[in-house]
Design a protein that fits this description.
The complex is a heterodimer of chains A (259) and B (214). Chain A has 259 residues and is an alpha/beta fold. Chain A contains 10 helices and 13 strands. Chain A has a single domain, classed as TIM Barrel (Alpha-Beta Barrel), CATH 3.20.20.70. Chain B has one domain: Class I glutamine amidotransferase (GATase) domain (Rossmann fold). Classes of the chains: A alpha/beta (259), B alpha/beta (214). Chains A and B meet through loops of A and α1, β10, β12 and α6 of B.
């Protein structure tokens, strides 16, 4: 039986973590390679890097980070943020990432999903979706709309229809981020996660809202998620990956307990 | 030196990086004669069986692989590399290398476990039940029974002769996730992406002389 995956997400800008991560003795780690190594050793099942860099120069720095991470950790990791062409995907994959995630670029050009899947296989292509709750209407029957630009721009795309379309185009996985829940630490958007996960036949990673282990338990059971993304709850050492896994394991959720 | 067979089936650098972390020297190439110099051969790969077989035939690597198996060189198949050593794959209905008797089948639709529907591909961490005791394969030595490995695949190996199977995994059905006989051992999961248990497996392989009595 598959284990539910626990995936720390690291935001990177110009080759450094946007917020330092607290480790033993409250030492602040700003180096993404060192942070990835620490999470690898602490039992992360996968790691996600989100590159919030804009300039081409900083993109080259990110590729160097990816290469060093690939030499350091021996679990899958994915890279997202600003990837919009097959050539950009290729550079990140050749640098050593298992997966690339596309978000805004796929909304603007859904063909990128099919092109990426054809070039590298579906297992490499993650669709990142940022979603906001709206009142259901003819255009947005599920009541969940895809947004871009950090939630400032509504796209008119229904989240459920977009998820199904992305799976049809060849996305291998969906990383589903609720803009409403993001940063609240009040828990994942369970209704949204269950809706998407039960209507597509590819894995769904829940994102946004994690503040305590109970939230992961909820989203991996009632929310039907295959994996859960976490950030601040482990970055600031409020919780540890091992502690979260033990909590889940004790409550009957299968997690990888030996690493 | 460990030879990694490059037949344009995905990015093979992750296997090379894992070997480097184990202080093994390796070469990644599609040149069969350069690979002849390697003491051990790793045959990895991700992607589709049809394209993989076309590349293997066009490069002549199919014949080299069969020869290395005959000559007794230790060989480790990984993921797609494991699938194409069988007679045939249901993926694109592809005739394969025919080194291991049997087929590679697609996971049935509507797989369920504990009453819940399962997704395809089988993607993530899962356990492997390895043969134990005297029949246990030396490449899996020292790996704890509850270790998990990283899988990502939609098709699974089904050896015609069960005595080839040396490991099994449950995903709605119980399938064969490792085969081995003589100098050949092949796994459906990715040891290079499976943390410490995966690195143990790779280190065992690099030290393995290529015999396994069954």
């Amino acid at each position: 039986m598959l284990s539910k995956r626990i995936i720390p997400c690291l935001d990177v800008r110009n080759g450094r973590l946007t917020k330092g991560i607290k480790f033993k003795g409250n030492v602040d780690i700003g180096d993404p390679v060192e942070a990835a190594r620490a999470y690898y050793e602490q039992g992360a099942d996968e790691i996600v890097f989100y590159d919030i860099t804009a300039s081409a120069e900083a993109r080259a720095i990110m590729l160097d980070v990816v290469k060093k991470v690939a030499e350091t950790i021996f679990i899958p990791f994915s890279v997202g943020g600003g990837i919009g062409t097959v050539e950009e995907m290729r550079r990140v994959i050749l640098a050593g990432a298992e997966k690339v995630s596309v978000n805004t670029a796929a909304v603007k050009n859904p063909g990128i999903i099919a092109e990426g899947a054809k070039a590298f296989g579906s297992q490499c292509i993650v669709l990142g979706m940022d979603v906001k709750k709206v009142s259901a209407n003819i255009e947005i029957p599920s009541g969940y709309e895809i947004v871009i630009h950090g939630g400032r721009t509504f796209t008119g795309l229904d989240a459920l229809q977009w998820a199904k379309e992305a799976a049809r185009l060849g996305a291998g996985e969906i990383c589903l981020n609720s803009i409403d829940a993001d940063g609240t630490k009040d828990g994942y958007e369970l209704e949204l996660t269950a809706l998407i996960s039960s209507h597509v036949n590819i894995p769904v990673i829940a994102s946004g809202g994690a503040g305590k282990p109970e939230h992961l338990l909820d989203v991996l059971t009632r929310g039907k998620a295959d994996a859960a993304l976490i950030a601040s709850m482990v970055h600031y050492r409020t919780h540890t990956i091992a502690g979260i896994k033990t909590f889940l394991h004790d409550r009957g959720v299968k997690t990888r307990m030996l690493w | 030196m460990i030879g990694i067979v490059d037949y344009r089936a995905g990015n093979l650098t992750s296997v090379a990086r894992a070997l480097e972390a184990l202080n093994e020297t390796c070469i990644v190439t599609n040149d069969g004669e350069l690979l002849d110099d390697a003491t051990h051969i790793i045959f990895p790969g991700v992607g589709a069986a049809g394209a993989a077989m076309t590349n293997l035939r066009e490069s002549g690597l199919d014949l080299h692989l069969k020869r290395w198996v005959r000559e007794g060189k230790p060989i480790l198949g990984i993921c797609l590399g494991t699938q194409v050593i069988f007679d045939r794959s249901e993926e694109d209905d592809t005739p394969c290398l025919g080194i291991v008797p049997g087929e590679v089948k697609r996971f049935p639709a509507n797989l369920r476990e504990g009453g819940l529907p399962l997704k395809i591909p089988h993607m993530g961490w899962n356990g492997v039940i390895f043969q134990e005791g005297r029949a246990g394969h030396p490449v899996f030595a020292g790996i704890p029974a509850d270790a998990e490995f990283y899988f990502v695949h939609s098709y699974y190996p089904a050896p015609a002769d069960e005595s080839w199977a040396v490991g099994w995994t449950d995903y709605g059905i119980r399938f064969c996730s490792a085969v081995g006989r003589g100098n050949l051992v092949a796994v459906q999961f990715h040891p290079e992406k499976s943390g410490r248990p995966g690195l143990t497996l790779l280190a065992n392989f690099c030290r393995w002389g290529g015999t396994h009595a069954q």
